[in-house]
Design a protein that fits this description.
Blueprint: H1 2-18, H2 26-37, H3 41-71
Helix pairs in contact: 1-2, 2-3
Length: 72
């Protein structure tokens, strides 16, 4: 079962990386890292890094859009 989870997680991660230019494929990367983080500690580290980076970038985008809205 562990090998199936690792294989499926790796497949999702690779598909997300290959399809990175298409919007929404980041969800595949996160899904792959989430699946791999159950069994692979390094994937858990990368998942936390991805989550914190996405959180910071969304906060920055929110501030940018709010400032833009308040200007007009």
């Amino acid at each position: 079962m562990k090998q199936i989870r690792i294989g499926f997680g790796a497949l999702l991660l690779l598909a997300g990386i290959v399809l990175f230019i298409i919007p929404g494929s980041m969800l595949l990367v996160l899904a792959g890292l989430l699946q791999l983080s159950v069994d692979v500690p390094l994937a858990r580290t990368w998942l936390k890094r991805c989550q914190s980076t996405m959180s910071r970038s969304s906060a920055k985008l929110d501030r940018l859009l709010l400032n833009r809205k308040l200007r007009s």
